[in-house]
Amino acid sequence: MSKPRTRIQQRNSEAILDAALEVFSQHGFRGATLDQIAEVAGLSKPNLLYYYPSKEAIHVALLSGLLDTWLDPLREMDPAGEPVEELLAYVRRKLELSRDFPRESRLFANEILQGAPRIQEAIEGDLRTLVQEKAAVLTRWMDEGRIARVHPVHLIFSIWALTQHYADFDVQVHAVLGPAEPDPYPEAHLYLETVFRRLLAV
Question: What is the pTM of this model?
């Protein structure tokens, strides 16, 4: 049985993961190095390797925690709730994730763009199962005439695309909007609510 970590060990481990998140979200897995992560964490490379034996081990630790964070908003969609409001709440939660966790969003996007070598099993397992479960709920709501009939999985894909864009393309969003709109999220929320209310109306 392993010993519990001391406060210093816990602090160093968290510093490594936070530094790795910064480096991976900027450079991707291939472009990131252990030297970069150690420098951002304020630790020596040997000290970093005491906690994590490889760059891959750090990346897997980050992605494992991230996947749960990414799935939670969809899990919260209540099958017994009012369909349009449940979907709009999901859109809002996803947009809030992009606002509050942009580095995590870019880390996930980079992993997917590389073919998901470290989370393929998870996206074919937990993620796919959850999407199928919620797609069945959406289909039932459509069959009951409570929301417009659209492809349920592509509806979920659209929500992902329209919300995660604000994190994954943050530089482009701010460059195009300019200084007149330094915070895109209030208007993005209003726009997306309008889009999905109209899409789902029966």
Answer: 0.85
DSSP 123: I
Residues 6+ away with beta carbon under 8 Å from 88: 193, 196, 197
CB-based contact 109:164 (threshold 8 Å) = yes
**In one letter, which amino acid is 162?**
L
* Secondary element (H or E) of residue 29: helix 7-31
Span 96-121, pLDDT tens digits? 999 999 988 888 888 888 898 888 88
Let me know: does 110 contact 118? Beta carbons within 8 Å.
no
Q: End-to-end CA distance of the chain, in Å?
A: 58
Given a contact cutoff of 8 angstroms between Cβ atoms, the answer to whether 46 and 59 are in contact is: no
Q: Please check whether residue 33 is in contact with residue 22, taking contact to mean a CB–CB distance below 8 angstroms.
A: no
Going along the chain from its start, the domains and CATH numbers come out as 1-53 (1.10.10.60), 62-200 (1.10.357.10)
Quote the CA–CA distance of 1 and 169 in Å, as a whole number.
44
Q: What mean pLDDT do residues 4-24 have?
A: 90
* 119 token code pair: 């989370």
How many other CB atoms sit within 10 Å of the CB of residue 197? Answer: 13
